[in-house]
Each structure stands twice: as C-alpha cells, then as structure tokens.
Amino acid sequence: MDPFAATLPEKARALHGDLARNFRQDGARFEQLWRCLDKNKRARVFLSTAGGNPPKVLISPQDTRLEIYKIIPGLKLQEISDDNRLLDLMRYRAECSLWEQYNKGVGDKPGDAAFNEQSMKVNSLHNSHRANPLRYWLNIFSNDEEYIKRIQYPNRMKYEETRALYSGSATTGTCLPRSTGDLVLRRQHHMLQSVNALFVNIMVVEAAYRRAKAVTAAPIATPTGRAEEAMKLFSALRIAYLPDRISVQDVFENVIQQKESYEDILYLCRTDPFVLALSAHGMSRDRNWCQTTRARTCLLPQIGISASQSSTWSTTRSPV
Known about the structure:
The structure is a single chain. By secondary structure, the chain is mostly helical. It has helices spanning about 5, 10-35, 40-50, 75-80, 85-95, 100-105, 110-120, 155-165, 180-215, 225-235, 250-270, 275-280, 285-300, 310-315; strands at about 135-140, 150, 175. It has a three-stranded antiparallel β-sheet. The radius of gyration is 32 Å and the shape is elongated.
C-alpha cells in the first residue's frame, strides 16, 4: 500500500489545522498584502512557492500538461494572479471544516466529493491503487473531529451492507469506496498544502521587509571610549599651517608622525568594525544600508520589491 495514501487523513487534518490557525491570527494582514500586489508580483510569489526549475505549475485554464489539473485545477497561474479569487479560496479552506469542504465548494461550486466524481467521468481521474489492495475497504466521512474512518470488511456482503446503510437517511455521514474516497483526501491535501505554502510565503516576505525596515531605522550605538580613541587618532591627521621657513628635520618628523597615525588607524579599521564604520563617509547611513540590503536580497526580490520601492509597500502597512 502507498505510504503516502496511508497517512492522508492525518496529513489533511494537520494541514487544515495549520491553515485555520494561521488565518485566524494573520488572515486580515494576508488579505491586505495580497491586494497591494500587482499581477506580476503575485505571479512571482506563486512561482517561488511552487519551486522547481522550471516551476511545475498550471499556467492557463486550458493547461493540462500536469496530472494535477484533474485534482486541483483552480490553482492556475493566470487565475491566481489576475484577481482576488485566492482570498475567497483561502478563507473557505481555512474557515470551513473538512466535512463542509467535502460537501460544498466556494460559492455555488461543488464540494470536493462532487468535484472528484465529475473529474472521474470527464478527465478519467482514477486511483492507482483501485484494484485488489483496496478491495472491500470503505472511507466513512462524518461531521466530527475525526472526519474520516477507513474500514476493511471481510467479504462483499458486509461491504455492501455498510454502503447501503450510509446511503440512507438514518446516518449523518457518508461513505465511498476507498479508491474513490482517497481521491477526495488527495484533493483536500493538495489544496490545503498549496494555500498554506502561499500564505506562509507572503508572511515571510513581509516579516523580512519589516526586519529590514527596523534595521534601517535603528540608531548605531556609539561606545564612548572607542569613539574618543578614534577621534583622537583622526585629529592627528589635520593639516596645520606651516611656518614660512621649515627645516628638513621638521619635514621628516612630520612625515614620520603622519605615517604612524595612518598605521594606527589602519590597524583599528582591521580589528574594530566601529572604527571602520566611522572612517567611511556617511558612516551610519551606509552601515545601515548594507545591513538592510543583505536582509532584503533574501526574499523581497522574489516579488520585485526593491529598496527604491519600499515606500510603496510601507504605505499599505498597518501595525500588526
């Protein structure tokens, strides 16, 4: 039996719990960030989340290159980046229980069970383990915390009796042959995994931007002792007015003195980062800029946010 399929119920429940928790905590912020991204930046986030080289994603509604179109056709690059349907999908997957998602989709669209049934007819969707290994197995779905039970029956008679029981109105659940029921779980798992990854990616990018912003605004601490020592050395470099007539000995002593001062400063620059920063022109701004640049280049370029565009991004920010 497929090890991945064996743990599908646990995986689906865990992913749904993660998304629900994240959305309760940061859902409003996610919606705000997503709305402020243009089409190109949304596409970059989507592609960077998918990973791969090239990324394995469906591009247009007509794209059928990847088998995944039979299970989650709604996650296509053009559709996700063109409008705000991702927000409706995210809210639906986070706020509705797995049982509700089983029965009803976003808006008036079919639920996961009905969608898979249609895809099996139209797109020849099937489970690769539909033969003997899953014979007389049923997936029983119910509106409770467990959501799904998998039961194997000893013979065809017991199997059919249970199917008939859950097909009637006496129970609040429903059941499907495991080969079909696992396809429903796969759809829920893949969809929840995808929207979870998109959510986390957006929030990580925003967190990196906020850290970079904080580094830029933070003042540089100035240790008094080292600052005084450094300024004393720099003061020795000032050029004094020379008398009208000087001797060769005076010139020689002045050169030796300046050489020693340069050597002292060079040593401190090599061993003390503070002195090195102090010796640079526009020291505090340049030092902060270097730190900010390192932070931003990790994630912000994925959605095209550069240092020059930080004001555009920051105007949409609200305290979290």
